[in-house]
Amino acid sequence: MRLLVVEDDRLLGDGIRAGLAQAGFAVDWVEDGRAAELALAAEPYAAVVLDLGLPRRSGLDVLAGLRARGNAIPVLILTARDTVADRVGGLDAGADDYLVKPFDLAELTARVRALVRRGAGRAEPVLRVGDVALDPAARSVTRAGARVELAPREFAVLHELMRHAGRVRSREQLERSLYSWDEEPGSNAIEVHVHHLRRKLGSDFIRTLRGAGYVIERSAEPASGPTGRSPDPRRRCAAGCSYCSWR
Amino acid sequence: MTTGAWIVAALWSYRDTRHETGEMMDAQLAQSAQILLAQAGHEIDDVPVTEVDAAHKYERRVAFQIWDTRRGRLLLRSQSAPTQRLDDRDEGFADRTVDGRNWRVYSRVDRERRLLVQVAERREVRDELATAVAFHLLHPILFALPVLAVLIWFAVGRGLAPLARVARDVAERAPDHLAPLDAGASPRETQPLVAALNALFARVRATLDRERRFTADAAHELRTPLAAVKTQAQVAQGAHNAAERAHALEQVVAGTDRATRLVEQLLTLARLDPQEKLPSIADVDLAAVASAAVAELRSRAANKRIGVTLDAPGPVSVRGDATMLEALVRNLVDNAVRYTQDGGAVVVRTSVDDGAAMLSVADNGPGIPAAERGRVFERFYRVTGTGQSGSGLGLSIVRRIVELHGAVVTLDDGPQGKGLTVAVRFPRGGT
């Protein structure tokens, strides 16, 4: 999953970027409000971590602009001001959550995961398709209860396809949601990862639609949950799918 | 007070009454003696001592004797009079004690008829009379005093009621309740007091607001470096490899340095803030101070390959506080080095212009847009897009020190219209 971090403090921005990357996110980091708007318009982010005191365009302005354009991407605000008025102001401007500096890195990543999940209309943290279960927090995958060892990038591809179970993801879409600006995917990296995943999870778990991309069919079992079958419309925006650019 | 004054008045009138009644009664004695002498005929000449009965109870207090001077025989006396002579002398007034009684005696003699008349009056009469007069004088006062006391108490209380109300208003206030008192509701007498109190409240409120804002800003400013330190430390904990850990730990150190510097700057400003005037004034050589500051920051500048030139040809005397002036120069040079790009140049110059000491620090860095020059002296204001993590307090400290020295600071373009020149002009002839 790809995240945008907007933080003008270099030490903190660098730390958040590194910390979220450790948690398996692909992270882009920009230092001012204007750059944040450009990045948000261009890339399919799953969520935004937004500092409020930003140069060029304040965090609240960026947020208001997003919501005014109907963009429902989950936004977590970082604020150094801890008065009730400051916090309420951020939430009322359209933020989904906030953290007061200094915060705990584990809490930040947990909240981001929760925001992404909620943004997709899911309450259950563990993703299930058939007998495969993926726990984003523990970064673990089980198949029929048995643990499956995955490389970080394999996990990311699987996570992305399971998040959008039932819908086709093109290779380009996958690349854009899995790699940040400073990571250059190899030309056939996605194919290689899918190949490895098939070997570990069964050859028919991920289907290839020639010329379109990859899909994990939604299982008929109730394990995926009723909400999984009727995705929240916001989910598409949060994932930055083709619907968004079409809109 | 009132009672005391009244008692003094009563004592004085008692004395006065005694004196006046004394004179009056002396005159009566003299007159009585004359009448007695005139009426004393020869019919009493050869009679033995005659006693005259008392006709009135007060007669006990007056007495007379008529003596035959030729034979030294008492011819006539009142019942109250003793048998011995009241006074040895023949003429005039005298105070005598006979048989344990005090008498005021007047003697008069008729030499032809050889008759001596002595008229006397008990002294107590006079004392009683004077006392009675004095007491009568006191009577109305004894009645009036309580009434007066109540009236005075009431009047004073009423007169002071507005003051009491103001006092109560002020006493009942919470320490942070600094709204002005209602001047319209107070009577004219207390208006100046209320106005003075309100002015004080306004000043205290302004100070408190400033402190509160400063504390809030300071807390806010400290949160970001602390967040950076904590985040980087946790990144180091979760690092997958040595290089990642080393990088994160470097950032932890850098963040700690920044937080430290911020705290130092906050403390400097907090110490400067409450000062109304310089704590110590001496002749300070600005050139020497500038030279020291430049030497201190030279290695930092060298790290960025910034050349720092000191142009201080001779001593420049300034009246002021040496420590503060050092902080002033250090902050300006530090700012110049911090915001000037690698390989830049900084020139520190001290001079005397038209009798006024001058300090200028010029760099060829990015400068400050003219529109922002007014704001950079505000606390925690940072020019955006510099990529530098200053405390946002350096120029606030500079401004405060400049104010305390009665100097003026101006911002201008740097040499060749690029960068920034900060110029401080001290007052002519020192502070």
Set out the fold topology.
The complex is a heterodimer of chains A (about 250) and B (about 425).
Chain A (H helix, E strand, L loop, with lengths): L1 E5 L3 H13 L3 E5 L2 H10 L4 E5 L7 H10 L6 E5 L4 H9 L4 E4 L4 H15 L7 E3 L2 E4 L4 E4 L2 E3 L3 H12 L7 H8 L10 H13 L5 E3 L3 E3 L10 H4 L3 H7 L2 H5 L1
Parallel strand pairs in A: 1-2, 1-3, 3-4, 4-5
Antiparallel strand pairs in A: 6-7, 7-8, 8-9, 10-11
Helix pairs in contact in A: 2-3, 6-8
Chain B lengths: L1 H38 L10 E3 L9 E7 L4 E6 L13 E7 L2 E10 L4 E8 H49 L19 H47 L4 H31 L9 E4 H18 L3 E5 L5 E4 L1 H18 L5 E9 L2 E8 L30 H11 L3 E6 L6 E6 L6
Parallel strand pairs in B: 1-3, 8-10
Antiparallel strand pairs in B: 2-3, 2-6, 4-5, 5-6, 7-9, 10-11, 11-13, 12-13
Q: Main traits of this protein?
A:
heterodimer; A: 247 residues; alpha/beta; Rossmann fold; Arc Repressor Mutant, subunit A; 2 domains; five-stranded parallel beta sheet; four-stranded antiparallel beta sheet; 11 strands; elongated; disordered C terminus; B: 431 residues; Beta-Lactamase; Helix Hairpins; Heat Shock Protein 90; 3 domains; six-stranded mixed beta sheet; five-stranded mixed beta sheet; 7 helices; 49% helix
Walk me through what this model shows.
The complex is a heterodimer of chains A (247) and B (431). Chain A is α/β, with parallel strands linked by helices and 247 residues long. Chain A folds into 2 domains: 2-119, 3-Layer(aba) Sandwich (Rossmann fold); 127-230, Winged helix-like DNA-binding domain superfamily/Winged helix DNA-binding domain (Arc Repressor Mutant, subunit A, Orthogonal Bundle), CATH 1.10.10.10. Chain A is built from 11 helices and 11 strands. Chain A has helices spanning 10-22, 33-42, 59-68, 84-92, 105-119, 152-163, 171-178, 189-201, 226-229, 233-239, 242-246; strands spanning 2-6, 26-30, 47-51, 75-79, 97-100, 127-129, 132-135, 140-143, 146-148, 207-209, 213-215. The longest helix of chain A has 15 residues, at 105-119. The two termini of chain A are 22 Å apart. Chain B is an alpha+beta fold and 431 residues long. Chain B has 3 domains: 2-132, Beta-Lactamase (2-Layer Sandwich), CATH 3.30.450; 188-271, Signal transduction histidine kinase, dimerisation/phosphotransfer (DHp) domain (Helix Hairpins); 278-425, Histidine kinase-like ATPase, C-terminal domain (Heat Shock Protein 90). In chain B, 49% of the residues lie in helices and 19% in strands. Chain B has helices at residues 2-39, 123-171, 191-237, 242-272, 286-303, 322-339, 394-404; strands at 50-52, 62-68, 73-78, 92-98, 101-110, 115-122, 282-285, 307-311, 317-320, 345-353, 356-363, 408-413, 420-425. In chain B, helix 4 runs parallel beside helix 7. Chain B is rod-shaped, with a radius of gyration of 52 Å. Chain B starts with a helix and ends in a 6-residue tail after the last strand. The mean pLDDT of chain B is 83.
